[in-house]
Amino acid sequence: MNLISPQIRRLNIALLIIFLLFLTLLFRAGYLVTDQREFLLLENQKRVVRQEEVMPTRGMILDRNGLPLAVSKRTYTVSIDPQTAKLSAEHQAMIVEHLNIDPLVIQEALISQKHYRVLAKQVSVKNKLALASIPALNFEEHEVRVYPASESAAPLVGFLNGKREGIVGIERYHQASLKGQSGKLSFVVDALGHIVSSKKMLRPVLMGEDVHLTIDAHLQMQIYGLLKQSLAKYGAKSGIVLVTDVKNGEILAMVNYPSFNPNESITSYNPLRGNAAIEERFEPGSTIKPVWLAWLLNKEYIDFDLKVSTSPGYLKVDDQIVRDIQDNGVLSLAEIIKQSSNVGMVKLVMDIPSQWVEDMMIDMRLSHHRTVGLPLEVSGDMNDKIAVSKFAKVVSSFGYGIEITPLELARAYAIIASGGIDRPLHINKHQIMKSEKVIDSAVAKRIQDMLYEVVEGGTGYRAKVRGVKVAGKTGTTHKLNHGVYQEKMHRASFVGFAPLENPQFLVLVILDEPDGKWHYGGTSAAPLFSEVMRDVLNYQMRQNKLVN
To answer: Most buried one in 143, 168, 328, 436, CB count within 10 A?
Structure first.
């Protein structure tokens, strides 16, 4: 008699099956842990966690109207693995069309014994998208920096090195904000390099910030063309043109020649093609005379109605001779500026303390006042002999023995043009600058009128602009070479502003070593000033019409 019920028998069978399954799994686990241990470890090692740096897009450098002066664009290197690539005739035709390559390039790549062959570089996003459906193609992304204003703004904007770091100019000064911050991704890949997990963002990407300048790209390029033409016409080696807005201190154009093409491969900075407007000092010559006069009048060291005898056209100081081109007789202050009398200026400063030279430079922003916001900017300096030599002191009154940057000279003239107010010249659009009263408005107005006479009937008559009252001053200096002033090496300059009734624009022109008869500021720099000022005023008129 069977005492075990059918229900208990079925339960026992089920438990036996479960027990056998457990033993099987236990045996399998033991097998894997022992006999297959090395295999499993190898397979696990083939799956690795990888991290990938995600590069940010560098910020743009924009002009005052939002036009790009430097912009990054994405390009691609297109390649294949010849060992696995399969390209149909249709796909090959698409590649030839969008990469603009010879069909033989594809054929040679397909029969290569290597695992990597490049078909084309610097492929645009548009063409990349057109070919994205072809499985055999690999796309490597790159960032290329493009400079639309090319040579015209290169010394100002700067360029990048191979590490994507700004070397000079705006690219260097704003490197930290332009570059952004890279992100980091984490993911798992198998032995074949295939991603077998979702990507996880470990650190977010911070894109580079845009930089907005006060520069007008249209004026920058137009003036660069005018400067090149003038250098060729007058046989000069190099030149600088600055344009500023007197009303707010904004720099509208900062043009240097020679320059370079930043869109070509550049590995190092060449100071000979740098931003001489801020990086190089020069002796300003007669352009300093109105600045000196404004400072002396403001200090009430001299009176407006003072007259000075310049006869017989020369003056002996410390056994050295200061000369005028001719005997100008007795001159008023306005006539000293109009005739650009060296003798007249020397007599004005003959008895001042030597310390006043440095004081004048600091007060008129010719030294110790760097604000433009660019790397490598230098500040004005003076000859050490000024402290001990009367001759060294007095020749500073007509621009020798002191060295300043073109930008500093422009700033001093902007003080005069703005009625005695210093509005620091700057190039970063959103930079907040503090204005300061430097000289009395009545003094500034008298100097403005004197500079108008220089253009109307003095050495600067070639700077005239039809229909507009222009004020300005010429300058001509002998250049130093190995400590000796060269008789046939000159620097010609002109600085002025317009319109006289309500000055808005200031233009500075410097030409280095113009030929022969062109070496005077009045014969070479003044005509270029006239062209630039005319174009600036006409451009502003067109802009105002567009706004209205």
So the answer is: 168
